[in-house]
Amino acid sequence: MLGPGDDAAIVATPDGRVVATVDVLVDGVHFRTDWATGEQIGRRAALAAMADVAAMGAAPTALLVGLSAPPGTPTELVMAIGRGLNEEAVRAGAGVVGGDLTRSEVLTVAVTVLGDLRGAEPVRRSGARAGDVVAVAVLSRGFRSPAAAVGAYRVPEPPLAAGIVAASSGATAMIDVSDGLLADLGHIAVSSGVAIEVVTARLPLNPRLVEVASALGRDHLQWALTGGDDHALAATFPHGAVLPPGWTAIGAVRTGSGVTVDGAPWDQPAGWDHFG
Q1: CA 40 – CA 52 distance, rounded (Å)
Q2: Residue 187 has what DSSP assignment?
Q3: Backbone φ and ψ of 108, nearest 5°
C-alpha cells in the first residue's frame, strides 16, 4: 500500500497473518564479488530469503532490504544489487518495499520477506509422521555444460510455487534446502520426533553435477546429500498420497530418530555449519 520513501512501508494483510523471515548474505561467505555480478548477488539474496517463505506454504508479498557496505564500494554495484533484488521480487509477485543502507567493513545483504498464507495453514517442520513419504522439489535446469553449475550457485532456482502446491496437496512438514539435504531433513526429524530414511537411487541428479564431481575427483552423491545453497524444497506427505507435479519421492519417515542413507547412519558432516 505504501512503498519506499517514508519512515516505514505499509503492507496489506488480507489473511490476518504474516509469514516473516530474514536471510543474511555476507561477502566471502555466501557470495563473492569477483565471481558474481551485482544483479546476480541481488537475485540470489532475494531467492534465498523467499525460499523460506515458500517452505511454509506461503507466497512472498514484500521484501525489506538492509545493505551494509565498505565506503569504497562502487555505487553501480549497489544499484545492480538493488536491480537484482527487485527483478526476483517482481517475478515472484512481490516487491521491495523499503530497507536501510549503512557502512560496514564487509558487504552484507540482509533480506526480510513477508508472506501471505492465503487462508491456508502453514506447513511446519514438526508435522512429519511415521509412514510419510519424503520428497523433494527442484526445478529441472537444462545444463548444457559443466560450467553452468557455477551459474546455479550464483543464482539458484528455488521452486517457490511448489511450496504452495505442496501445502494444498497435504504436505505434513516442509523445509528449504539451504545447508544440505541431510542437515535440513535432520531439522524435520528432530522437530517431528521421527527418523528419516533417504534412498540415494531416488535422488534427482543432474548429469552435469556428476560430470563436475568426476572431473574434480569428488563424490557427486556426497554433494547431492550435503551440499548447500540449492534452496530446493523438501517435504513429507502422507503415505499413499499422490505427489504433486514437480515433487520426487526420495525416502520415507520411520519411527525413531535421526537421518539414515540407504538404511545406514551417515557418519560424515550432514551439511554446512557456519560455526563448525
Answers
A1: 19
A2: H
A3: -135, 135
3-state secondary structure 46-71: HHHHHHHHHCCCCEEEEEEEEEEECC
Where are any strands of DSSP class E within the chain?
19-26, 59-69, 95-103, 108-116, 133-137, 173-177, 195-198, 232-237, 247-254, 258-261, 264-265
The answer to whether 193 touches 253, Cβ cutoff 8 Å, is: no
Q: Which residues of the chain have pLDDT under 70?
A: 140-144, 146
Distance in angstroms (rounded) separating the CA atoms of residues 11 and 8: 10
* Residue 31 and residue 85 in contact, taking contact as beta carbons nearer than 8 Å: no
Cα gap 237→192, rounded to integer Å: 13
Handedness of CA 174, 179, 181, 184 (dihedral sign): negative
Instruction: Tell me how far CA of residue 153 lies from CA of 158, 184, 195, 215, 241, in angstroms.
Output: 11, 18, 30, 18, 33
**pLDDT tens string 235-270:** 999 999 999 999 999 999 999 999 999 999 998 999
Torsion region of 55: left, alpha or beta (phi above 0 gives left; psi -120 to 50 gives alpha) = alpha
**What is the maximum alpha-carbon separation in the chain?**
58
Phi, psi angle pair for 273, to nearest 5°: -125, 110
Task: Report yes or no: 120 and 168 within 8 Å, Cβ to Cβ.
Answer: yes
The rounded distance, in Å, linking the Cα atoms of 64 and 96 is 6
The separation between the first and the last C-alpha atoms of the chain, rounded to the nearest angstrom, is 43
What are residue 202's phi and psi, to 5 degrees? -95, -5
Residues 186, 190: Cα–Cα separation, whole Å: 6
